[in-house]
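Run log // design_07
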């Protein structure tokens, strides 16, 4: 009503604020405008004042008022009066509208001075919503001379150095210590100079050359050696210089950015400056620093996909621990994804957003999580979209454009997915629906269709069969971490009941709420009720337990201990970690999985959850307990395969077209998932005799390594071919797609799919065909010089053998001999015709 009244009495002001509202509506942005104050009557007291209008989306009104006031103080503006209103923005939240009458700084004596001062104030107000508390303290309390940009850079560099330097000495290089060292009064001048160097390097109006950068770095290094007595401070300041050298681009100068993002050369993540990487070096690393969060995105190939997870530690101590291992966790998850993604065009990637939600209320935590998701995703878009805005504001030291494919992981909700896709479209991303998978309508919801669990179940079945148990005919027992309300655990429970009926006996389930145990098996109907109603295990009806069953809640120490040890204590034929934090079983506790006699509580583990067991603990369980472990990169790969099919659908089909054919496509995807899972599961156990003494996780890595080796070689060969030559291999890609999708889009690939993606798709299809059919040694025994050529010839020889087999089938050769020859041709005909040995 108040705004309607204003529209009638002061239409110009109403329209002005309405225009500001519309600029930020549906976003997380901030807009600021100034106009000279024109009094209705002579007003000597305010002559020379300006009206300042600010619109801020989704900000707590009191915080908006406080932050703007602090910016005015920082820039030496005086405020005469102010008005603050909050207007609903529908599903997006609200918009705070602030209008104030302000005086420019007394030092601004000309129109040019005033214009410069208002531009600086506008930039500060836009950025301050997204500045972390440490940067705010630097610029508003301790060192106002820094300005918001330098303060933000120093804060970001400190946060980035933490997981790097914690590997050197976690006690010395805590995040608080790092920030204290580089902002100590004696050294903050050096930090400010380094921040200014970063600004100069990436200033789009006059970017600094490589030669000038080298000269400046050398000079600042000499100054540090001469003036900084403390060795730790010296190391950190030089590491800040190293960050600048290894930064390929940043969104620092984007006018409406939500956070500070950097595309890094992955070598910077080594604690030492010798360039020696521990493990495989990623293809690319993004780091994003914002208000209450830091985030990494790590990928191992140019074309890569992987989930985005939110980590929200419950205490300051846990937050510090997670921050120290933030990059290592992201790297490990991305590498596991790289191993897992062997069947699909995309390599492996992962994004981990670490959020400081300590001491926030549940509502405050939820609000903060949603804002961090938006800030992180929009910052990635700053660094990868190619628009007039990014071309004018971002200095790019990379030679090729970058494409990212994300997916949802822990604590990402459908609203996040929808916002990210819509934002990608708004920002000009080439294929917005492909930027984020699992869209509620036009995606394939992993939980709804149980895609990951379908694969886990196939690996479980094949592993049990190889241990002497046919789960379709014989009883067996399992224990599970992850609740009936979870994606992997809940769907696996449902699928096992579907496929094995009463043969499966679940003796224990543990999740975030507690655990239920019963050596006689949990009631199937009751478990299905929890799965259907998406309830945690704490809702299990205890009346359905046998006399030997127990429920343990987490309200007391005893219950917490019983929940945390369930996976070790209970005996079962198989243990399926389908939920839980990474490194739950590690080198400090793996022996707890063994019974007093040294035998394992379960001889089989199928890893439905990522990184539940550390690599060295896996090996120890195999060496000491003979435990057969189906590694996560194999067991739960079907989720990423589904997401890859979603990416293809987003590129090849219109949304209405996908929705019209969704039922058929989903059914075909499930068939392909089970097929791909079975191909690898059977290969893993088929490979065992060729690798005596090697654990199954190591065999799984051999399979992934062989496929990735072949894939990389084939991509290199395809790079040298013409478009017409490459199109001869498109049937491989079409055969990989669900049949309905291939039928609808077979003639759209060249127009809608990026060339690099097509090459990667052809290569992954051919590589997986070779390894699943011929085994890992066929690939690893081939000289690298002929690997790609052999792989490409394989297709033609396969066709030749098929024609030969058909001719033989139609011949008059006696049936007994015919069948024997046909089987020989099927098993080894192609390999023999290639005249190679593997």
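design_07 sequence
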């Amino acid at each position: 009503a108040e705004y309607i009244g204003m529209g009638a009495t002061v239409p110009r002001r109403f329209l002005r604020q309405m225009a500001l509202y519309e600029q930020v509506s549906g976003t997380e942005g901030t807009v600021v405008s100034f106009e000279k104050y024109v009094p209705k009557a002579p007003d000597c007291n305010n002559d020379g004042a300006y009206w300042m209008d600010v619109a801020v989306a989704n900000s707590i009104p009191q915080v908006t008022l406080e932050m703007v006031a602090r910016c005015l103080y920082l820039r030496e503006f005086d405020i005469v009066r102010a008005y603050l209103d909050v207007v609903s923005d529908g599903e997006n939240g609200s918009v705070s509208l602030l209008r104030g009458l302000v005086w420019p700084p007394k030092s601004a004596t000309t129109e040019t001075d005033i214009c410069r001062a208002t531009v600086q104030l506008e930039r500060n107000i836009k950025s301050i919503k997204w500045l972390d508390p440490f940067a705010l303290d630097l610029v508003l309390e301790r060192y106002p001379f820094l300005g918001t940009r330098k303060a933000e850079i120093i804060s970001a560099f400190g946060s980035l150095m933490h997981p790097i330097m914690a590997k050197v000495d976690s006690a010395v290089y805590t995040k608080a210590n790092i920030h204290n060292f580089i902002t100590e009064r004696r050294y903050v001048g050096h930090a400010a100079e380094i921040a200014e160097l970063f600004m100069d390097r990436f200033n789009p109006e006059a970017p600094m050359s490589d030669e000038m950068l080298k000269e400046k770095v050398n000079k600042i290094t000499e100054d540090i050696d001469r003036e900084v007595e403390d060795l730790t401070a010296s190391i950190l300041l030089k590491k800040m210089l190293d960050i600048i050298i290894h930064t390929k681009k940043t969104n620092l100068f984007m006018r409406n950015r939500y956070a500070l993002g950097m595309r890094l050369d992955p070598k910077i993540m080594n604690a030492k400056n010798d360039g020696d990487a521990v493990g495989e070096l990623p293809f690319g690393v993004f780091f994003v620093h914002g208000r209450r969060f830091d985030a990494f995105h790590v990928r191992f190939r140019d074309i890569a996909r992987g989930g985005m997870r939110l980590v929200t530690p419950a205490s300051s101590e846990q937050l510090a621990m997670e921050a120290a291992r933030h990059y290592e966790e992201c790297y490990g998850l991305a590498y596991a994804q790289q191993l897992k993604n062997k069947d699909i065009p995309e390599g492996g990637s992962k994004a981990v957003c670490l959020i400081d939600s300590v001491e926030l209320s549940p509502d405050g935590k939820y609000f903060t999580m949603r804002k961090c998701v938006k800030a992180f995703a929009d910052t990635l878009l700053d660094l990868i979209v190619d628009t007039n805005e990014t071309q004018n504001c971002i200095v790019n030291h990379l030679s090729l454009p970058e494409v990212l494919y994300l997916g949802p992981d822990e604590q990402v909700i459908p609203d996040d997915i929808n916002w990210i896709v819509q934002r990608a479209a708004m920002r000009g991303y080439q294929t917005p629906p492909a930027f984020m998978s699992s869209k509620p309508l036009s995606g394939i919801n992993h939980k709804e269709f149980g895609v990951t669990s379908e694969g886990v179940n196939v690996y479980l079945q094949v592993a049990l069969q190889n241990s002497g148990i046919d789960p379709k005919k014989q009883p067996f027992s399992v224990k599970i971490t992850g609740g009936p309300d979870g994606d992997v655990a809940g769907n696996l429970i449902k699928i096992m009941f579907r496929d094995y009926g009463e043969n499966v006996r679940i003796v224990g389930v543990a999740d975030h709420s507690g655990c239920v145990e019963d050596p006689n098996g949990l009631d199937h109907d009751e478990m299905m009720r929890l799965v259907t109603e998406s309830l945690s295990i704490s809702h299990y009806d205890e009346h359905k337990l046998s006399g030997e069953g127990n429920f343990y809640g987490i309200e007391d120490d005893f219950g917490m201990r019983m929940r945390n040890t369930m996976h070790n204590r209970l005996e079962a034929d198989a243990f399926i970690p389908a939920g839980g934090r990474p490194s739950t079983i590690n080198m400090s506790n793996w022996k707890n999985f063994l019974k007093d006699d040294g035998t394992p509580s379960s001889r089989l583990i199928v890893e439905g959850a990522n990184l539940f067991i550390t690599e060295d603990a896996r090996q120890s369980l195999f060496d000491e307990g003979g435990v057969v472990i189906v590694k996560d990169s194999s067991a739960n790969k079907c989720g990423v395969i589904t997401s890859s099919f979603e990416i293809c659908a987003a590129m090849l089909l219109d949304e209405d077209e996908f929705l019209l054919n969704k039922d058929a496509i989903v059914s075909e995807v499930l068939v392909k998932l089970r097929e791909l899972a079975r191909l690898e599961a059977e290969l893993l156990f088929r490979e065992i005799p060729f690798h005596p003494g090697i654990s199954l996780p190591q065999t799984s890595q051999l399979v992934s390594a062989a496929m990735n080796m072949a894939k990389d070689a084939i991509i290199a060969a395809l790079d040298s071919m013409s478009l017409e030559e490459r199109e001869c291999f498109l049937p491989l890609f079409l055969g990989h797609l669900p049949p309905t999708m291939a039928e609808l889009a077979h003639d759209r690939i060249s127009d809608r799919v990026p060339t690099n993606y097509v090459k990667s798709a052809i290569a992954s299809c051919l590589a997986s065909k070779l390894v699943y059919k011929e085994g890992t040694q066929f690939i690893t025994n081939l000289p690298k010089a002929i690997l790609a050529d052999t792989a490409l010839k394989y297709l033609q020889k396969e066709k030749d053998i098929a024609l030969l087999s058909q001719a033989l089938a139609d011949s008059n050769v006696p049936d007994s001999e015919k069948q024997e020859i046909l089987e020989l041709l099927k098993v080894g005909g192609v390999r023999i015709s290639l005249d190679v040995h593997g």
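The longest helix spans residues 662-687.
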